[in-house]
Amino acid sequence: MTTPLPHIEIDGSPATDPALLASLLTGYGHFTAAQVRDGRMQGLDRHLARLDRANRELFGEGADGDRVRALLRSALESAGRRDAAARVYVHPDLAGGTRTVVTVREPYPHVPTPQRLKSVVYGRPAAHIKHVGGFGQTYYGEAVRREGFDEALLTSPDGEISEGAVTNIAFWDGTSLVWPSAPCLHGVTMALLEDRLESVRRRVTRDDLGDFRAAFVTNSRGISPVSHIDGRDFEVDEKLMDRVHTAYASVPWDALGD
Questions:
Q1: In the chain, what's the furthest Cα-to-Cα distance?
Q2: In angstroms, how far is the first alpha carbon of the chain from the final one?
Q3: Strands 115-121 and 151-155, how do they pair?
Q4: Residues 162-175: pLDDT tens digits?
Q5: How many Cα atoms are found within 13 Å in the side-chain-facing hemisphere of 16?
């Protein structure tokens, strides 16, 4: 079945002008991704703050949150959607400014299937930024999928775990919820769970995997338990996953505005 193409707007206008499209070809920029339901988004303030921080670091100026909300509303209205998977990208403009690109498409149905992970030696550059041009993480993600895994687990040469190719990962030792402290993207879903569940951040390596009973991964699509990393199987701890999903379900859905 052919996947419907996303509806794309640049600075509030349909992406039909080649001059506008040319601004996307630099491979430099940042973005945020979220699910929208009935015109609302979980953790909206965190998404806007993420865009603002990255914009200041990459382009020397903030991102106007009210404008981002307006562009999201415009794209949703133009696409005729109240429910969607939405992304907001910021790219450099050829004239020296920036371009804001909004894409909305059909919502991603999230089925929390247990995930099989394989570790690879790779670290995202400027890992704290959700940046475009992620060739390395895409390369390794596709490589492990061809081997029958669901996600690549990024590690340093000495085995320190940072994050998944497109996820954050948390571990459970039966007492504590642990997020790796290595440089990684502080994902919005991860941050929202940190607000609602007691957890710690500390160094985690491949050699430490035997110390944990369970693990799960998070991203903008949702939360899934981990059933396998490399040659080690993990229990799907239903009580833990119930706690995690309950915590995430308690996050309010924020209106994008009038």
A1: 55
A2: 36
A3: parallel
A4: 999 999 999 999 99
A5: 2
DSSP state of 160: B
Bridge partners (DSSP) listed for residue 98: 92
Which DSSP helix (H) or strand (E) runs through 34?
A: strand 30-37
Q: How far apart are CA 217 and CA 234, in angstroms?
A: 13
CA separation for the pair 84, 188 (Å, rounded) = 17
Of 224, 216, 221, the closest CA to residue 199 belongs to 216
Query: For tokens 């239903």, what's the residue?
Result: 238
What is the token pair recorded at 125?
């550059």
Over residues 28-57, the pLDDT tens digits come to 999 999 999 999 999 999 999 999 999 999
Calculate the alpha carbon distances from 104 to 39, 113, 201, 203 in Å: 12, 24, 33, 37
Contacts of 75 (CB under 8 A, 6+ apart): 7, 8, 9, 86, 102, 103, 104
Please name the residue that has the structure tokens 């991860």.
Answer: 190
What does DSSP assign to residue 184? -
User: Which two structure tokens, joined as six digits, stand for 175?
Assistant: 């007492």
CB distance 188 to 160 below 8 Å: no
Q: Is 58 helix (H, G, I), strand (E, B) or coil?
A: helix
Which residues is 248 bridged to in the sheet? Answer: none
How far is Cα 248 from Cα 147, in angstroms, rounded to an integer? Answer: 31
